[in-house]
Design brief:
Number of helices: 15
Distance between the termini: 25 Å
Largest sheet: 5 strands, parallel
Bound molecules: ligand NA7
Radius of gyration: 24 Å
Number of strands: 21
Strand content: 15-25%
């Protein structure tokens, strides 16, 4: 590992891992600093029961090595956390990535040295590292949030956060478990926890829209068809707004299969559009809509494009969703509490589940609607709501993350003249292309705010960003340049564009409160942080910048 690397990278998730590979290819020396004890990022930290990816694994995989594509076997269509982590481990071994990584090193300060024109990073333990370039590969959902609930410190039982789940097995057998939060993490964990615990109490603040996930085992023929078509699939990913190819394996579909081998779609159903049903919900009569729901279930609503673009269609879809859930829950009162009523489909990231609603038909599961009976305090032995005390042995927070900006703001980043990023972003994150900030020369963010990031297949977004960053550093070297940073004008224009494309979408509806908007963190500015204009449009813009010699950036000579 180089002590004087060209590039320091913070984070050894999928971004930090690819950074090592890509920068080495470009002849740059690199050192990765990672807080955890190994690679994997999100998949290293989020080990809670039921943790799973919501993008199909054949697509949520690196494209840089055709050999890797051919030799890795995915056991399921949508992989579980442990399989994705095994993949990360395999990639790290295959490309000898750990040689340039230092683990158990949490970076506490990231400071630009004006005179030396270098970044100096300081770990929590006080160790310092320097390099002319710094890449923050710190992830979009890597700072867990534990809400400040009165009395929390008094609880005597076991306490866990889904985003910091222990490496050792957590034994819940015979225990009374409480979970706060019903976002993706809560919805994935709840059915598993209910199977393991003596009793599970779900503390729900806002009901969620969730549809059944595809839970198929990977068929060898489907995987082979992907392998045979990977170059075409990777090209398709580049043209898709979400970085997903939607490749349909045709040859491997068994004759007589009632459901197509739908390896690339989120739910375990065939879609109405394939059954000859129009893809606008408003074009269907009420009877037809009811038939579609009856036949295809909740996931059918994802197939109608107008649900996400037309307020009336959205309302119709929300009502169909609620009617369907009412039929899935045995106790009508519990069903009413589970129904989202204050916001629409498409406002938040779509949650995929396995047996979520059915879990509330179990005898050992209780739903507590915090909207009706708020938490008053956490006690030594459980949670007291305005109605009663719930005795608990284990308390699990599934309360989400300080998304998109959390990890960057926590790193105490200081640019030219000691300027703090936290001050610069006081009213919300301002970046150019989610890649760089003015006054922070040679500092790059991977999938930063203002880039497609969480709205794109992360692996596609990560590779594109690091290729761009690598090319940029290479360009500077070739042209005798020492620093690069965006002009404030480029940033302002870009952020105006990011806001403009988000306006009028379901994501920014006044009723919508999501982590995309920072709404889950008290006091966080309400800004729609990801770029919703689509990955291809975004990529073209990045390519234009590089191809035209970085006109939106300022450079200094070496
Ligand atoms: P989310 O989606 O932010 O969900 C967090 C959940 O925790 C959500 O139901 C919140 O309710 C709830 N929450 C947060 N604070 C509280 C308090 N103080 N009291 C009660 N309930 C609370 O995080 P996830 O980890 O599930 O998923 C994040 C992303 O990771 C996901 O979208 C995927 O992309 C992967 P609220 O809705 O705010 O009322």
């Amino acid at each position: 590992m180089s002590d004087q690397p060209d590039v320091l990278v913070v984070g050894a998730g999928f971004a930090g891992m690819y950074a090592v590979h890509r920068f080495r290819e470009l002849g740059l020396t690199v050192k990765v600093l990672e807080a955890g004890s190994d690679v994997g990022g999100t998949w290293y930290w989020n080990r809670y029961p039921g943790a799973r990816c919501d993008v199909p694994s054949l697509e949520y995989s690196y494209s840089f090595s055709p050999e890797l594509e051919q030799e890795w076997d995915w056991p399921e269509v949508f992989s579980a956390q442990e399989d994705i982590l095994r993949y990360a481990d395999y990639v790290a071994d295959k490309f000898d990535l750990r040689r340039d990584m230092q683990f158990n090193t949490r970076i506490a300060k990231v400071e630009w040295q004006d005179d030396a024109r270098r970044w100096r990073l300081t770990s929590e333990a006080g160790e310092t590292f320097e390099a002319p370039f710094c890449v923050m590969a710190t992830g979009c959902l890597s700072v867990p949030v534990e809400p400040k609930i009165p009395g929390a410190e008094r609880f005597r039982g076991e306490v866990y956060h889904t985003g910091r789940w222990p490496h050792e097995a957590v034994d819940l057998e015979g225990k009374r478990v409480g979970i706060i939060g019903t976002g993706s993490s809560g919805v994935q964990a709840i059915p598993e926890l209910a199977r393991q615990a003596a009793h599970l109490t779900v503390f729900q603040r806002t009901p969620v829209y969730t549809v059944p996930a595809n839970r198929k085992r990977m068929r060898a023929a489907v995987q082979q068809e992907f392998r045979d078509s990977y170059r075409q699939i990777r090209e398709m990913q580049q043209k898709n707004p979400g970085g997903v190819s939607n490749f349909r394996p045709r040859k491997s579909v068994r004759r007589g299969d009632s459901v197509p081998a739908d390896v690339t779609r989120p739910s375990d159903i065939s879609m109405p559009s394939e059954a000859g049903v129009p893809n606008r919900l408003l074009d269907l009569t009420p009877e037809q809509r009811a038939q579609v729901m009856e036949r295809f279930g909740l996931g059918a609503l994802l197939a109608f494009r107008d649900v996400y673009t037309n307020a009336e269609a959205n309302e119709v879809a929300n009502a169909l969703y609620r009617d369907t859930v009412r039929r899935m829950i045995r106790d009508p009162e519990t069903a009413e509490h589970l129904l989202p009523k204050t916001y629409g489909l498409g406002c938040k990231r779509q949650v995929l589940d396995r047996d979520y609603y059915d879990t509330f038909n179990r005898d050992n599961v209780t739903l507590v609607d915090l909207g009706e009976t708020p938490i008053e305090t956490i006690t030594e032995s459980g949670i007291r709501t305005s109605r009663t005390h719930h005795d608990l042995d284990v308390l699990i927070y599934a309360t989400g993350f300080d998304a998109m900006t959390g990890a960057l703001l926590r790193a105490n980043i200081r640019g030219r003249g000691g300027r703090s990023l936290n001050d610069q972003w006081r009213d919300g994150p301002v970046t150019y292309l989610g890649l760089q900030m003015s006054e922070f020369p040679n500092l790059f963010t991977v999938t930063g705010p203002g880039s497609p990031s969480v709205l794109c297949n992360m692996l596609v977004a990560i590779e594109q960003h690091l290729n761009w960053i690598g090319d940029c550093i290479h360009y500077l070297r070739e042209h005798g340049l020492a620093t690069i940073e965006p002009s404030p004008e480029s940033e302002q224009q870009w952020i105006a564009h990011v806001n403009e494309v988000a306006e009028g979408t379901m994501y920014t509806a006044p009723s919508c409160n999501s982590w995309y908007l920072g709404a889950n963190i008290p006091g966080k500015p309400r800004i729609f942080m990801p770029y919703v204009g689509g990955y291809p449009r975004y990529r073209e813009r990045c390519e234009h910048e590089a191809g035209a010699g970085y006109p939106g950036f300022r450079v200094e000579s070496a």
